[in-house]
Amino acid sequence: MSSTITLLASAAALALGIGAVSAKAAGEEPVKSVILVHGGFVDGSGWQSVYSILKKDGFDVTVVQNSTTSLADDVAVTKRAIAAASGQVILVGHSYGGVVVSEAGTDPKVAGLVYIAAFAPDAGESVSSLIANPPPGSPVPPILAPMDGFLFLDRAKFFDSFAADVDVELASFMAASQVPWGVAALEGKVSAPAWKGKPTWYLVATDDKMMPPAAQRQMAERAGAITVETPGSHAVYVSTPQVVADLIARAAVNAGLQ
């Protein structure tokens, strides 16, 4: 692994109260496989910069392409990626992808979970239930009325709500190339959340106008996650890929030490 991961190992071990020397003495090796799971309205291409950074640092990276038609279908796709991965994996979810990794992450090959401005539901919860009662004054995502059971964001409001810190041309393309998000996927309930039994990390995007940062913090705390905050929109994984990749690398180094 690269010197970047070595430095991350030391910093993360100290942050967890674990000396770098003791970690080395224990013979622990970083998890080398990472699976990236996208959320609603987008596809896996948004992970490209995070993917490139992780590949450069020696990780084997898989990008899941969810249909976002139902939670069951998306979990099945993610489980196939887990089965195909080499060794243990770090499972990463953005937004609705957090619901997917919460359900799929109980697989024994999953060493740790990373939530990127993502939903982290408890048993019986879904995206629909988690967004049912937003805090007063929270921004209202510009979700249009369902069409044939699928949702879209208002293109004219996509930049401000979803990707305000992304290059304008790229954000415009993301708005125009939206993936229909099935209402059934929003209503999919988690049965046994993986974060209850797996080491968990959470990145809060403090400028998020799709999911209130306060809600992100509450879910991260409930999950017992090691939490990092960074300025960023809901598309923080696109706009600030280095921060996202660093947290994933930290998880890969430390998943086996908890």
How would you explain this protein's 3D organization?
By secondary structure, this protein is α/β, with parallel strands linked by helices. It has a single domain, classed as 3-Layer(aba) Sandwich (Rossmann fold). Helices cover 40% and strands 15% of the residues. It has 12 helices and 8 strands. It has helices at residues 3-15, 20-25, 48-56, 71-84, 97-104, 127-130, 155-162, 168-176, 183-186, 213-222, 236-239, 241-254, and strands spanning 33-37, 60-64, 89-94, 110-116, 150-151, 181-182, 200-205, 226-230. Helix 10 (213-222) links the parallel strand 7 and strand 8. Helix 4 (71-84) crosses helix 5 (97-104) and helix 7 (155-162) crosses helix 8. The protein is globular. The model is unreliable at 1-27 (pLDDT under 50).
Low-confidence stretches: 1-27
Shape type: globular
Give the averaged pLDDT, no decimals.
Answer: 89
- CATH-assigned fold name: Rossmann fold
CATH arch. level architecture: 3-Layer(aba) Sandwich
CATH class: Alpha Beta
Instruction: Report the radius of gyration as a whole number of Å.
Output: 17 Å
SSE order in H/E notation? HHEHEHEHEHEHHEHEHEHH
